[in-house]
Amino acid sequence: MVWGSQQWPQWERGLLVVCFLAALMVYLPTITVLPFGDDWEMFAWAEQYGTEVFYSQGNFRVWQRLLFAQAYPLLGDGVLPLVIGLSIAVLLMTARFVMRVAGRVAPGLTMAPLAVAVLYLFHPANASAVVQIDTFSQNLADFLALLTIQQVVFSAATSRIRSGVAAVALTVCVLFAKETALGVLAWIPVAVYLRTRYVNNAGTKDAFSSALMAAVAVAFGIALYMWIKTEAGTPMTPSQTGRYAIQLEPAKVVLNAIQLWGAALYYGDIATLFVFGLSPKVVVSGLLSVLLLSAATLGLVRHLRKAPETPGRLSGDALIWCSFAAPAVVPVVFMGSVSELYSAGIVPFVALGLGLCCANLC
Description:
Low-confidence stretches: 1-6
Largest sheet: 2 strands, antiparallel
Oligomer: single chain
Number of strands: 2
Mean pLDDT: 83
Structural class: mainly alpha
Strand content: under 5%
Shape: globular
Distance between the termini: 20 Å
């Protein structure tokens, strides 16, 4: 098994298998949970509208509704284990993806892929993203967003036209899953500029040209999605009340951002934290996060002390990947309220950064 340019020893591959089996043992029992929350809306929608996946009522999440509308007439209430099972599959694919990224950006850190996989798979926010039908869209949007970043920012394009078409198509696919990935998509042109200019050492003109093409492709994909959404009869105006109401008050936006980034760094009882706030239980369960952040800080200091030619030095691509953690909170920070579920979109980038730092201690 090769991750990036490194060959994994047999014992490390064994640890990897154990990690994924442990994740299955943790998440498979969720298949037996009963519907709750927004799941009931999906059941009511399927009973009323059947396979009309572009119906305007509710959120415009095409892949989720397409799956549910096709499976519900055949399986009835049995569609819940199917969707949760698919969510677990997407979660495992995302874990494998971030592992491969870790192997490419830090080829000298043999434990980095495993550390990243553990930190991603067992993050408590992922439990919230797996156990509901309605949150399948969050897992899928996260995975498709990672594929889009890989294709547009890090893949060697053989043709600018082909790369642009792929960027448009992937942008639409991501938004068909969930619109919470808008911030990640908007950051892609910036990432293209940074990689072209500072990693590939191209001139400013070439970097700006590449970034401009990426910006045009992503913007066209967003515009195409909005047109499809409008044609489907879904209103473009945001909700004026409730969770989805647009909130532009600076203090509220900052608070939402702190909650989302904090939740992505928190490996304790995250559901209790969002529902009841700070409590002794939340503080005690968060001790693991303190230890983890301390280890990551020590690993980062050790990395910065390494000479440039030392094996295990992180590449510039590592910083670019981790930079997506900042815009990943957009547009959720402008919502009336946020929950631990929305931090799941930040977790792949946070797990990547923490895992790479901690691997420097090995």
